[in-house]
């Protein structure tokens, strides 16, 4: 009992200030002995108030104050995840509370403090959010609350044993947002644009009367002759096409932007894109590449595929070795018998790096529709827009412009061999990949 009492007792700054002031006053009484009685009265009052404060805080029972934490069973990577704290004051007097959360070590937040004041018998809810930037398990510790009475000379620590482990998955918040906007027909508010139909699908749907704006090349002359009105054929997008997201897990994907690595950006985009492809009726699959290891999740249009993809993406980690694209091309050639859309998430920081892998990319594009997605270095772009004041700034800008121009050269180099490419900032990856996919569907390339 005594041990728990001492572990829960903490003196406040107010107490130490008062004690220090009285000590100084005792020193002053050495020169003015008449004030010694006043100093003694001051120390007596302080002791009395301290004992009264201890009585108020510790004589109320074991649970005069409670705190509980409520949060989701899993977190979304790269997004703000809400956490709720419920505080209940069972004291008969108002208290001020300082809450110290034992947050997971991945956040490196050692000064996280919440302060609140509660009236007698009052219940309050505190909200805060955390943004993880790494996938994996996050261990939350206890919730420590330091309660003080209106006297404020000491405080009582109340510890809620609510430790828990939360798994951080790829950004399913983005997935929900896209699903919600898609359901309400508001994807354009997110930046997803419908593409005008340039080509024509060969999958017939039905015949309808001609209205202004219909393609006259679709006129059905036999139906027109029977009905006496212009009739046109209607086609639908081809479905059940195989679509694979190929994620490079080599060292080039370890580069961070705004806390997230390129691999995490690719994983978040893959999750959203796979869901949209399934909604379009296509079969989605996953290929991961690391060093000489190629893992393939076969494509399917089943509703359970999204859960399988989510669990598969959760465990992916970058490697320090360079990925083996020759192994990738050989494996895909031997496993995939049907022409598929391959969306390759990778990164090339120099033309030399692209040239090393170009023969294998050309081999893949010979049998499949290949879209190479690589990243624009936004930090270099910021340097190119800065105003140069010194010779060193000029050198830095010239080097940054050289690397930025080299990225555009890579796009032209890939297009020279008929390989589709997408150069995008990491923050806009999901949006640009979805728009590119809709464009390919509109052009009937898949």
Core attributes:
3 domains; 6-stranded mixed sheet; Immunoglobulin-like; transmembrane helix; elongated; alpha/beta; Rossmann fold; 446 residues; 38% helix
Count every helix, treating DSSP H or I runs of 4 or more residues as helices.
12
The strand line-up of the biggest sheet is: 18-17-14-19-20-21
How many strand units? 21
Percent of residues in helical segments? 25-40%
Largest β-sheet summary = 6 strands, mixed
For the record, the CATH architecture of the largest domain stands as 3-Layer(aba) Sandwich
CATH superfamily of the largest domain: von Willebrand factor, type A domain
CATH class of the largest domain: Alpha Beta
The percentage of residues in β strands lies in 25-35%
What does the radius of gyration come to? 33 Å
